[in-house]
């Protein structure tokens, strides 16, 4: 294993485990601070750090929008306003169970991406991908319902939180796809400008919500009481995971790096267990089903790529001039 693969694997592992730990840690913090303010304060701090890093590395010119301000605003809103506020609000409303649900929804991102591309291009994905999507969906249903059919009779109580979490996850998928529109930009520049604009939108959301008394402005004591949780959320899932994941994906390629997303629910389940949460067999089996679906899709995809690429290597070898053959 060469150094690039080892470094890329380590970066993707750091990002995935940070995201997995994010939900149990945020569950504690959300008991004291409103989810909307929690999301805003978290990425306000991340934005300040990113601005300093971008200024030092690329200078003032890197802050120019170059006519792409509206596009940056859209993707920033999807990634840093919609995703964070919707996921944490939905998780908070569902209580302890929302921690696992949010984690499972996170792992479904690759499948959601495939579904979105299917809708936009109207090109059906391979059959093995469809099978993997069905298996992953079955696993997600097991976790969400916890094996209780009464969940569907009480769907009204869970529908809004689930829709919020799902909407947030779709928002991050859209944001991730947005990077392709800025191919000539560095990862740091795209991350900083979208985070900056998304945080400004979040500021508008919390300001308007507070003005209409929809949410309560947290006191300084409330924020200070979750200083350790907030510090963790800022430095690891907020800053380190964002930069590590983008850098790791570049080193490994999306096909290889996406496997590390499986560590999100694993990390979540381990931390919840140590927090005293009793993990049911349905939550465990459902999580394993989702992981199996992602691994299955990736492994079959690898095999199909090797099959299609092998004939090309053979043709190149046969077509060489005799003077170059050993």
TrEMBL record:
This protein's UniProt keywords: Cell membrane, Membrane, Transmembrane, Transmembrane helix
Localization of this protein: Cell membrane
Pfam families: EamA
Transmembrane segments: 36-56, 72-90, 96-121, 128-147, 159-178, 190-216, 228-245, 257-276, 282-300
Domain EamA: 7-144
Principal location: membrane
Bilayer topology term: Multi-pass membrane protein
InterPro entries the UniProt entry points to: Diverse_Substrate_Transporter, EamA_dom
Entries under PANTHER family matching the protein: OS03G0707200 PROTEIN-RELATED, TRANSPORTER, DRUG_METABOLITE EXPORTER FAMILY
Family label: Belongs to the EamA transporter family.
Protein name: Drug/metabolite transporter (DMT)-like permease
Originating organism: Paenibacillus brasilensis
Taxonomic lineage: Bacteria, Bacillati, Bacillota, Bacilli, Bacillales
